[in-house]
Each structure stands twice: as structure tokens, then as C-alpha cells.
Amino acid sequence: MKRVITSAVVVAVSALLALGTTSSAYAADGKFIYTKPNKDIATLDNPIDGKCYNVDGVGHTFNDTDTYALLFHDAGCIGSHEEALNPHKQAIESEFKSVKFIA
Q1: Rounded to the nearest 5°, which phi and psi values hold at 81?
Q2: Which of 9, 24, 28, 35 supports an S-S bond with 59, CB 3.0-4.6 Å?
């Protein structure tokens, strides 16, 4: 009987660890809308938190997501960000080559 209980505890703990460590990428809820250099409007829908998006933005930018958008001067989200847009806020004169979202 003791062996059966020990085995059951081991199985339960193993299942808990396996399920507890499973994670999925968090996606911001909403849209990030920006103006391209050719004046076209582009959108990132539900961007993934922590992922760097290499996009070329100039001018009006609207962070209509529930996370912060960090705008970087260089592609690859390298160095410190030039501008941070709060959730559901806009910037009239932005210029960036990449953006990363953080919760």
C-alpha cells in the first residue's frame, strides 16, 4: 500500500511540474498603428510581448494595445529605446526602425 501511495504522489508531482512549466508567449491585446515612410498606414495586430518587430515608422503612431511600446532608432531593438508609448496613447512625430512591446 505504501508503494502505491508513493507512486501516486510521484505521478501527481510530475504532472504538476509538467503543466506548471508550460508557458505561452503573451500577446498584447490590440493594434499598433504606425505611418510608413511612404505615408502608408501599417498595423501590428496583437503583437507578442518581448518580440522585436523591425518596422520603419515615421510620423503619426498609435499604440492601441494594453502594453507599452518601446520605439528604437535602430533595427533589431538595439540599444536604449528612443521613445516609450503608453498603452492606448499616440505620438504625432515618431521616427523608429523597430518596436518592442512590454507588459
Answers
A1: -75, 150
A2: 35
Query: Which DSSP category does 81 fall into?
Result: -
* Domains of the chain from N-terminus onward: 25-102 (2.60.20.30)
Three-class secondary structure of residue 79 per DSSP = coil
Cα-based angle 86, 90, 33 (whole degrees, multiple of 5): 100
Q: Which residue carries 526602425 as its cell?
A: 97
**How far is Cα 55 from Cα 64, in angstroms, rounded to an integer?**
17
Q: Structure pTM?
A: 0.74
Question: What are the E-state strand segments in 1-103?
Answer: 30-35, 41-45, 52-65, 68-72, 83-85, 89-102
DSSP assignment of 18-45 equals HHHT-----B-SEEEEEE-TTS-EEEEE
The half-sphere exposure of 45 on its side-chain side, counting CA atoms within 13 A, is 0
Residue 37 backbone dihedrals phi, psi, to 5 degrees: -60, -30
